[in-house]
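Recap quiz, item 2
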Amino acid sequence: AQSVTQLGSHVSVSEGALVLLRCNYSSSVPPYLFWYVQYPNQGLQLLLKYTSAATLVKGINGFEAEFKKSETSFHLTKPSAHMSDAAEYFCAVSESGANSKLTFGKGITLSVRP
Amino acid sequence: KAGVTQTPRYLIKTRGQQVTLSCSPISGHRSVSWYQQTPGQGLQFLFEYFSETQRNKGNFPGRFSGRQFSNSRSEMNVSTLELGDSALYLCASSEQVVSNGNEQFFGPGTRLTVL
């Protein structure tokens, strides 16, 4: 069965600092991996996705993530945090197949200090 | 294109009542999935519909049900509401079924409060 682990529930960084949000997955087959962002009182917005093409995936708003099969990881990074990046971030995994579904991690709240 | 819309945005019910939530997918999208989001359990998959057929279901009791219409609009129903059903219910649509990495687009959700 597929699963996602996001360690920690809250990350705080200073404006301009590196953002690193960790995600580890478990999947019995090659996975599809996603990062979503959720702003208060809104739905989820896709930041980026990995679908077995390039292992380094670039997304919107300057975010990127690297798929590392040996580490079963798909960590999200951004070189320089902006105040507007404060939100909740979810890593998710899905597998191909008839009963494919999206499984989410618990989410990480990112705070950005001025 | 208009995004995924969900109605109502907020709902207050009492225990034992039933509720119906509605979701209109992006035009041309044939797959609609539903998720429950709570602080304790996070985002949990409820079910997915494609071309009016339920193709996948999560681990929720039978009180949770859904359907999809020929225009791809979807409804979910929760009967005999319990306090624990208080949550944000999110609907997501995609062009095809959720496989092969197809992107899902989420609506703003319906906030259900059960008193």
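The CA atoms of residues 47 and 76 of chain A lie 10 Å apart.
Chain A touches chain B through 27 residues (CB under 8 Å).
End of item.
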